[in-house]
Each structure stands twice: as structure tokens, then as C-alpha cells.
Specification:
With about 160 residues, the protein is α+β, with helices and mostly antiparallel strands. It contains four helices and eight strands. Strands 5-6-7-8 form a four-stranded mixed sheet, with helices on one face. It is elongated. The model is unreliable at about 30-45 (pLDDT under 50).
Length: about 160
């Protein structure tokens, strides 16, 4: 009889131990479906979302919704997408862009009838938008006159328009 009690106690302890180990092993784990959804969401939010800045009446402002890049890993494709979405005010005309070997983006715009203030606002909105694209080092903006001659060419970084 004493032997039976010892066997029951041993079995009881083993069952408790097994349940404890199983419980502790499963703590903190998420379902496979949940963790996959979270990691996909994290990738989308971090690498491919861009805030597009626009020229307002007297300042630049963010669009209310962020833009999701379709090809965030490709600088030329991302710049093409952004420039399609970006609204250039009527006083300027978007001509094109190039990307050099140092991952600098050169934007060419033609001045139609801008003044110094509107030109500065357009540059700030362009730079603040484009520097969000992964791996872009600098943004060069080349302003052409109506005859196609470069009249203003300057290089900008993300810190160039910090107060705008």
C-alpha cells in the first residue's frame, strides 16, 4: 500500500512538472499567422511610406495621407513615382530627373513665372519629399529659364530646409 502511495505521488509530481514545462514553453509565443502579419506590416510602414510635401499659400505643408512606394528599393522607380504624385505649381514646369552614381537625384524644372519666394518653397517641398527615399544622398535642383539655360543649380540635403 505504501508503494502505491509513492507511485501516485511520483506520477502526480511528473504530471505537474510536464504541465509546468508545457505552459512555460508556450508563454510569449504568438500564432504563426499573427507574427507574419505584424512583420509584413512593419516592413511596409518603415521602408515604403513617404510624406509628400506641397506648396501652400505661404508655406509648405504635408499631404494628409502618406504615399506608399511601389518599388522603394529602386531609387529611379521611387523618384518617378514621387514626381508623378508631386504637384508642381503652375509657375514652374517639371522637366525630368536623373540619378548619378553617388545616389544623388538631379531634378530639372523650368521657371515659367516664379518669384524668389515661390521658387524657394518649391525647392523645399521637393527636397523634403525626395530625401525620404531610402539611399538618396543629396537632391540637386537645376532651374532652367524659358530658353532652357540653367539659371540656378544647387545641391540640398535633408537639413537644408529644416525650418520650413
Amino acid at each position: 500500500m505504501r508503494r502505491n502511495k509513492l507511485c501516485y505521488k511520483t506520477a502526480y509530481i511528473l504530471v505537474l512538472l510536464l504541465v509546468s514545462v508545457t505552459f512555460l514553453n508556450s508563454c510569449g509565443k504568438k500564432d504563426k499567422e499573427d507574427s507574419t502579419a505584424l512583420s509584413v506590416t512593419g516592413i511596409i510602414n518603415e521602408n515604403s511610406m513617404v510624406t509628400i510635401y506641397e506648396v501652400g499659400d505661404d508655406r509648405i505643408q504635408e499631404r494628409s495621407e502618406r504615399y506608399q512606394l511601389k518599388q522603394p528599393e529602386s531609387i529611379p522607380a521611387a523618384v518617378e513615382e514621387i514626381m508623378t504624385e508631386f504637384t508642381v505649381p503652375e509657375v514652374m514646369q517639371y522637366v525630368g530627373y536623373t540619378v548619378d552614381e553617388n545616389s544623388n537625384v538631379i531634378i530639372t524644372i523650368q521657371d515659367v513665372s516664379s518669384n524668389e519666394e515661390s521658387r524657394l518653397m518649391i525647392k523645399a517641398a521637393l527636397v523634403k519629399t525626395l530625401v525620404q527615399i531610402h539611399n538618396i544622398n543629396k537632391v540637386v535642383i537645376d532651374v532652367l529659364d524659358e530658353g532652357g539655360t540653367s539659371v540656378d543649380k544647387a545641391t540640398y540635403t535633408d537639413a537644408s530646409f529644416i525650418y520650413m
